[in-house]
Amino acid sequence: MVGKPPDPILARWLRPGAALPELTATSAEGVLEELAAGVARTLPGVSAAAVLDGFREREALGTTAVGGGFAIPHCRLTGSREIHLRVALHRLGVDFGALDGKPVRIFFALVAPQSGATAHLEALGAVARLLRDPARRARLLAAGGPDELLARLLETSVPIDPIDPTPPIAPREVTADV
Asked: What is the pLDDT of residue 7?
């Protein structure tokens, strides 16, 4: 773990297997197509075309590139029953319209249920909190491939017990008065 403590909210959706194959498209549209296809493979009953349309609609409102080489394409879809968060690496980076002008190398693709506005915002917030830490951003950008990227993400997150979703509390040091 680097920097701040892990984010249990992010860990709720970021699980082993969440890394998509390395992206190879040379345009923002091509990246959205690759992301949509990758996410749709894990969403029963939801087509890549539906995910792509959702991503395109959101991008039409303004870029989801957050700067520093990161973007969070996201949408809400009727066919999705839960949050689906996937991460992908583009080794060279692609122009995604970031305000800082930097090419995006790491993409967090997020699909939420149409009725899940709260969970959608929680997941976006968790990714945004992760990306606030310069040491974590640098560590993620230095990943050599999708598996290493996911491993670095998982080390910055701790799972939440679905029965007791409160974040774990570190034990306090007990001292005796002498």
From this structure: 63
